[in-house]
Amino acid sequence: MEHAAVVGEGVDDDEVWRSRAHDHLNVYTGLPNYRNSWTRQGFDESDYVRGGSDRLKHAMVTRGVEATRARVQEHLDAGASTVLVQVLGENVLTPPVEDWRIAAEGLLG
Asked: What DSSP character marks residue 8?
């Protein structure tokens, strides 16, 4: 199961979090298979604007290690045996190495 995404620790600015979540969800909100899955989860057409509604962003993209740890645990409690955590950096061309380190320490340590 993919948890979807996390914006790293230390991103305190709502606009930075919202921008990264928007960029990440921009492709997915245009894909029928994701929209169908989200509809089964209780979302609707108003959530599928390109980049996702705020409600969809909050459901699909956590912010910080504690929120991510809680979300991963929700998946494990629901029966997942594997949960992928995708760390969203500043842009897709620059690997978020420091955020990976922080996420790994916080989730595995």
From this structure: P
